[in-house]
Structure prediction request, 350 residues.
Amino acid sequence: MSVQGFSSRTDRMLDRADAVCLRRGSRLTDLRRQVLGLVLEAGRPVGAYDLLDKLRTGHKTAAPPTVYRALDFLLEEGLVHKVERLSAFVGCLHELCEEDDGCGHDHSGSHTAQFLICSGCGSATEIDDPSIHASLAAAARRAGFKPHKVTVEAEGLCSLCSAATAARPAARAHG
Amino acid sequence: MSVQGFSSRTDRMLDRADAVCLRRGSRLTDLRRQVLGLVLEAGRPVGAYDLLDKLRTGHKTAAPPTVYRALDFLLEEGLVHKVERLSAFVGCLHELCEEDDGCGHDHSGSHTAQFLICSGCGSATEIDDPSIHASLAAAARRAGFKPHKVTVEAEGLCSLCSAATAARPAARAHG
DNA sequence: TCGATGCTGATATAATATAACGATCGGCCA
DNA sequence: TGGCCGATCGTTATATTATATCAGCATCGA
Prediction:
């Protein structure tokens, strides 16, 4: 059971994650569930040591390996992604979001992630554009390269920050 | 002047880099030239502290900021790229390679990089696929996102390693 | 000459990630 | 039942990557 109270939305996503793991014969332990919950609640890329701090509020003994091991598991299962440019982690909404039920993607084992990272507000929006994926797959094939894990990251300004910056050049964040 | 002897190929690339900087009004100082030379000679992604070690053979006093400042400059000028997945740096062949004279790409200020990273032999091949670029630009536009720096990294097996692995599963490297 | 700017030297420290070893828990099967 | 085994986690220590800060020095233009 969770020591911390997560939002009901997060809890539903955790239950989905649980089901996914069950189906695959892997175990979403309390600790892993806790870490995944923290990542999901953050709603933005969050660093391992930030997670560690939060984890410690309900788990005094946690140390770096505690959170890194949990993250390794979650990455392996495709439940979270790492944003390389930020050395930070985000939940994979395509796996866990109820709104995305019918998107048809199967992320299991593909380990591919595409992000639009806003340097204004720090958000990272996961896109999963089939045409980017296809172009990359084609280029790899031409090179005789067999891709295993693929990272696509664009850093720039989201629409809100871009509008805000146009209005007042010193703007740092929106909502 | 270089303290270390670089290959004549590297020297030619350094001269090109010098010309590029001159054209832009930036300065490829001895130190920066030295660091760029080390990156180019490596011929594969190389970590900042590896560079530091090499730099120290001819420059006893070098410290981390020495190499990071040089790398920041080189990144800004598009003369090297950072491979995020490896926290390592490679020369941008499209800027510096004589063979690529007529490729028509203008990388200046675009800060985009696409790599095929082989986990077998540690090579990182820069591709610069226009269709990947176009797909990404289109996806960003649809999201109202203005990309500034773009990273595309596929980790997997290059053709040589893939062949070697098929032949003898324990293989680690080719040539 | 003066100040502004850009580059480097040098020390210290922050931030991110892993190694290594032992303890515990559960399942599995002789 | 008892013992083995693999998976998970606790704990300490350390490795790796990156930045902050301040001082010195050169260059350039006013």
User: Anything to note?
Assistant: The interface with chain A takes residues 84-85, 114, 116, 118-119, 125, 127, 129, 131-132, 134-136, 138-140, 143-159, 162 of chain B (CB under 8 Å).
